[in-house]
Write a structure and sequence with these properties.
The structure is a homodimer of 318-residue chains. Chain A is α+β, with helices and mostly antiparallel strands. Chain A has helices at residues 9-16, 62-74, 115-131, 145-153, 165-178, 219-230, 240-253, 258-284, 298-307, and strands at residues 24-30, 37-43, 46-53, 92-94, 97-103, 108-109, 186-189, 198-201, 204-208, 215-218. Chain A starts with 8 loop residues before the first helix and ends in an 11-residue tail after the last helix. The model of chain A has no long low-confidence stretch (mean pLDDT 93). Chain A binds chain B through residues 1, 3, 8-10, 12, 23-32, 40, 42, 104, 106-112, 200-202, 291, and chain B through 1, 3, 8-10, 12, 23-32, 40, 42, 104, 106-112, 201-202, 291.
């Protein structure tokens, strides 16, 4: 949850002079997104989200994120559409922060999606992968294998969280980096396709939000992130019914190649390691201004240990 | 800003079964109210606020607060209207908290209201005082003179905030408690009528919110709280034009008696002391879970020092 930077009504009025979106009727800071300050804005012409970008989002990445949302929205993906200023810019500044206004999406994130929700979300993920084609900008995955080692080296005291966590991280890191697949079909991926970022209206996906980790990488890596975050139960068990629902719905939109299927187990481990690393780091180095509890890294050490025993994509429901 | 208790979509669905307000379309934690957890809820039938009451609001006071909002709303005051469950209750429970759903009010709080806004708000305050008549419940002002001494005694180290603050508090406390006026016209007051709690649509008051300090006390004490929070400029000077706007607009709705006018200077000092005390205490004892920066007590020590030199209500614009 986050409102790091305050915005007064007077700041808002000044900002809205740059836009042609009507007069403000309601304006509230919302507890959403841990990286930025977000506000719900209602005007006489519609509902919007105002985002002020805080330091964790690199300024040079903003044209990629905003341009991507525009590209996807134009191709029918239900994602926030950046609203342009009168002089055609998606990005502006407010209170010494970069800022953007995007359309507000109806829908609610589920904490415990069922198999039908999983299938709808997987269909949306495949649609997003296809719609990203032709987007002119690219962004390296800063949290891909090359980013893991510096992150692991910055972690001190992982064993205070869980016995053997340092060894698990180091062993997995060496093995995954040396066996990481290349040449898989790829393009723009969401890279944070968790249930928090998918808004449902009933059983249908009303919107996909939070593109601030999006980057260019293997599509099946995005599918692995989704399987990791949608298909485990609270008790840590993998729900193969949900796994099947995700994989089948995805394949109906975008077939998986033999190479992608073969790579899935190692990508499941890799994506588990990626979230294990950032959660472990954030757990040991909490940001005093973050206004949010760090997420428990043990959720992902458990998942990584599960994947270490998996031999074939069949075990995920393929 | 505050979301102390999380509410999942599944929790929400379970809650909404008790109500007849339609299906949820949007649900977001909002950064509003420092005492409770608040969520914006949109359904196919309207917009609402869900509040979960945290420990700072006493359970036994909830019928007063909710009943008051209902009483006022029925009499035309633009305030949140508690929505009843199917079996007629305004109050329910969720995630081990007392909880209520109220209607969402359009409008935006201003940080720097001008004299016209001050007049509109004062008209609304007088309307609120008149509309409270006949409300069947009552609540002692826990932050009135009798509450100040225990609060002052719980404060250690005020001089670390500002030289002489302890002496200012103690001297003012003794003098005010021994000269506190009694027998003034009274009834239900808002007791926290700050610009944050008045929502404007253009120059008109669209709503008054946050009734969680409301109580029975002298009406003119509420006016003093308003003058203190609306009529000082950021540089600490009292803006007599705004003071006149407030007092004149208020008097047009509810005439002030000689006794009320005579009491105004001491009530200005008293209401300044009341906010100085709570802010000083909160500054020295920050709640680690509060997710909000304590407000600067020096704003109110400055106001109190200003009032200590005032001899007559004329100096406030009467």
């Amino acid at each position: 949850m986050a409102v790091y930077t305050e915005v007064s009504f007077e700041d808002l009025e000044r900002l809205l002079e740059q836009y042609d979106i009507g007069a403000p009727l309601s304006f509230k800071g919302i507890a959403e997104g841990i990286e930025n300050s977000n506000f719900y804005l209602q005007t006489d012409r519609g509902a919007f989200i105002l985002t002020l970008y805080e330091k964790r989002v690199a300024e040079e990445d903003l044209p990629f994120f905003l341009g991507l949302m525009e590209h996807l929205a134009e191709r029918g993906v239900h994602c926030p559409l950046p609203v342009k200023t009168r002089d055609g810019r998606s990005l502006t500044t407010l209170n010494r922060r970069n800022a953007a206004i995007v359309t507000f999406l109806t829908g609610i994130a589920l904490r415990r999606p069922d198999a039908a929700h999983c299938a709808s979300a997987a269909t949306a993920l495949a649609g997003l992968h296809k719609a990203g084609e032709g987007f002119g900008l690219s962004r390296v995955n800063a949290l891909g294998p090359k980013g893991w080692r510096p992150l692991a080296e910055a972690i001190y005291g992982a064993d205070t969280i869980e016995d053997g966590l340092t060894a698990l991280i180091n062993t997995s890191l060496e093995e995954l980096v040396s066996h990481w697949p290349s040449g898989l079909p790829g393009g723009v991926i969401h890279a944070d396709f968790f249930p928090d970022n998918v808004l449902f209206v009933g059983n249908l996906v009303g919107g996909v939000i939070d593109f601030y980790f999006a980057c260019n990488d293997a599509f099946v890596y995005d599918l692995a992130i989704m399987l990791n975050s949608w298909c485990f139960e609270l008790d840590g068990s993998f729900n193969i019914t949900k796994g099947q629902a995700v994989i089948n719905a995805y394949r109906q939109q975008r077939p998986l190649s033999e190479a992608e299927i073969a790579a899935l187990p190692v990508l499941m481990r890799g994506s588990a390691l990626r979230f294990l690393l950032t959660r472990t780091y954030d757990w040991l180095n909490p940001d005093p201004n973050a206004l949010v509890r760090p997420k428990d890294p043990r959720e992902y050490s458990k998942k990584l240990r599960f994947h270490n025993k998996v031999k074939h994509a069949r075990e995920y429901g393929l």
